[in-house]
Amino acid sequence: MDLYCLGNRIRKTRMNCGITQEKLAEMVDISTNFMSLIENGRNMSVETLVKIADALGVTVDYLLSDTMDLQSDKIMTQIAQNLSSLSDDEKLFFLNVIKQYKNIEK
Predict the structure, then answer these.
(1) Which listed CATH number (1.10.260.40, 3.40.50.300, 2.60.120.200, 3.40.1000.10) goes with 3-105?
(2) What's 58's DSSP letter?
């Protein structure tokens, strides 16, 4: 795993969400200095990675993926931002809509 790429993806996602490094560090309950180190390629625990993904409204898979292009990054961030404010019931509704759409497209 390329920790520099992971840190860069975290940084880009954070910035696309309009969250400061300080705010993300607070959300994840780590120091701003450690958040900076993570964004510059420092290793972290799986627990911290999960907390970062949750705070950014994305999956761990998304953060670990090195193959998505920039346009996909922006779209996924926008989707995550829009979904993050929904209730669990609303999220389940949209998940079912996506599943039904995928079945229609086959």
Answers:
(1) 1.10.260.40
(2) -
User: 22 or 102, which is more confident?
Assistant: 22
Sole residue written with tokens 């922006």: 74
- Output the six-digit token pair for 9: 């993806």
What distances in angstroms separate CA 10 from CA 38, 91, 96, 101, 103, one per listed residue?
8, 23, 28, 29, 32
Q: What is the pTM of this model?
A: 0.63
Cα 14 to chain centroid, rounded:
8
Q: Which amino acid is at 105?
A: E
DSSP 3-state of 4: helix
